[in-house]
Amino acid sequence: MGFTRAMVAVACVVFTGAQGQPGSANAPVIIDMVQNNPGDPVAWQQSKYFDPAVLAANGYTAQTTTGEMSGTQAVDFHTLGTGDYFPAGSGARRWLDAYAHGVSRFVNRTKAAGLKAYFFVDLLVFPVPVIEAYADKILDKSGAIQWNNVTATLLSALVDETFAAFPGCDGWIVRTGETYTYDTPYHKGNTPNPSKSAAVWTAFITELSALVNVRHKKDLFFRGWDNWPSDAKYYTDMTDPIPTHPQLYFSIKHSAADFVRPASWNDQLGTGKHAQIIEVELQREYEGKMAYPNYAMQGVIEGFPEMNPPIGLRDVVNKSQIRGLWTWSRGGGWWGPYIHGQELWIDFHVRALLKWWIAKGSISEADAFAAAVPTLLAGCSVPECVSAVRTLALTSADVVLHGQWGTIHSPGDWMRDDRIGGLERTSGHFRSLGNDDAQWAASLAEKTRAKEESAQMLALFESSIAPHLTTPAVADAFETSIRYGVYLYTIVEAAWRVMQQGYRKTNHMPYSAANLTTAISDYDAAYTEYRAFGLAEIYAASLYHPYYLCLGTSCNCAFDPPSGSVPDGIGATVDKFRNASSWSPGPAHVGLR
């Protein structure tokens, strides 16, 4: 499907395989990306990590854009010779020219700092007028772009025009599993391989490598995420027929699933004959995006404690296939919380991970973290303070595991980004507990543990860290992030009690009406306190919403969005049981739903 045999044969003849160990011919790279979340007008990040000079100072060698800001969406396909798709003076042309100017500035800034500049490219995405002109040749019955010889011609033009327009661009990082065009009014697209056929990927990547690596001598990173299973055999069967090239890399997340917990290892890493880079998300999109402490690099490097056995970057960092690291210092997921430039916990991730990575694992993660503490927290150089920060950081990861996720039949992503789901997301978890009272108690105990540990972190900060800090603004921001977690996990613990009792009531299981009443009252009080904290505290990130995730530009992130566009969530769950008891709405939900 999509290729003639001649096309693949030519590509195979042109390539020369790497000599020695797999991946050894490829240059090492350390890439960072600040991702601006798609379709979100307020998600352009406030971040120092936009500045390539900051990246260079931290040891990065390259920078990439977000997928919604790419040079591939700044070309007009004039080389096709089949039409003027962006006529002079038109709104489309004015959009394209303004967009291209900004893209050029990104490339120039990055190169001036001595870094490589990569475009993050969604494929297959083409201008709408080009799609319309070729509709009868490239669209299937559903209106989706299909991969075939005509589409291959369009891809060839896209590659050629992009590198002609932006000669300073050093290559592409290609995303095909997810395709977002919320912010690009003149472009549409979709994956070239919706069936995730291994044979199609083999042919597609071979052709793309021929265009980018061979024809233009640029780097190509092809992402595995959401394209094929996180399975080593599938990966090697699919990639082994693709000729190696010293500028071809595969980009693989360290986690088999998304960046979630309970964590799992991606066993594609360190296998096969191609060079690989490892993707690590530093803002942890599912887990509050660093609105509160959540230090995850110990787990990323050494393996998370829930793994059996723990496996992390230390197990593959020195394998020949592993040629680089790609961090997402900011962004990922959707909407908030918006941290308003307060990047302390991201800074800990950057400093610890890069120091450890550049040393190729010759120092411990703990030593890398300890080295970062006095550089980020002025005055915290004595052993008592450094040790306390370390304890706080490790405790924060435990809070997230047990408070948000759970190890007793994990409820999955009932919380994510800045949204909190209700029974519509957690019923499966409660169903899995059956009639086992011990399991029900253990499930609630995890949320209680997270609430208590959050309070312990605040006490530790006040007793053993704050007295040493010499920069008041840093101390205030640090404390505020801890308090955010205290308030949030107080809500979570109360919400869990509401859902437990509510589920049991709905399903005709023994429950306590008194405990349900108390849980609702506690939830209302906790949410009211949280709202007041967010209103008065200048260093606080934006707050969670008591409804679940909705995608696209129709969901406006407001506390009081139109009811027709708001999914269910914890607010609706609490109100259901509140109203069933003939209670009037409590203060926590005034203006919230």
Beta strand count:
12
What percent of residues adopt helix (DSSP H or I)?
Answer: 40-55%
Number of H/I helices = 17
Biggest sheet, open or closed, and with what strands and sense? 8 strands, parallel, barrel
Gap between N and C termini, in Å?
Answer: 49 Å
Mean pLDDT: 92
What's the arrangement of strands in the largest beta sheet? 1-2-3-5-7-8-9-10
Strand proportion: 5-15%
Helices and strands, in order, run as: HEHEHEEHHHEEHEHEEHEHHHEEHHHHH
Low-confidence stretches: 1-18, 582-593
Shape field = globular
**Which structural class do the helices and strands define?**
alpha/beta
Radius of gyration: 25 Å
Task: Please give a structural write-up.
- The chain has 593 residues and is an alpha/beta fold.
- It is 43% helix and 10% strand.
- It is built from 17 helices and twelve strands.
- It has an eight-stranded parallel barrel with strand order 1-2-3-5-7-8-9-10. A two-stranded antiparallel ribbon has the order 4-6.
- α12 runs antiparallel to α14 (437-465).
Top keywords for this entry?
single chain, 593 residues, alpha/beta, eight-stranded parallel beta barrel, two-stranded antiparallel sheet, 17 helices, 43% helix, 10% strand, globular, disordered N terminus, disordered C terminus
What is the structure about, briefly put?
The chain is α/β, with parallel strands linked by helices. It has helices at 5-14, 52-57, 91-112, 128-133, 135-138, 149-165, 198-215, 232-239, 297-302, 344-358, 365-376, 383-405, 423-433, 437-465, 472-506, 513-536, 570-580, and strands at residues 29-34, 62-64, 116-122, 125-127, 171-175, 187-189, 219-223, 248-253, 275-281, 322-330, 415-416, 419-420. The chain has an eight-stranded parallel barrel with strand order 1-2-3-5-7-8-9-10.
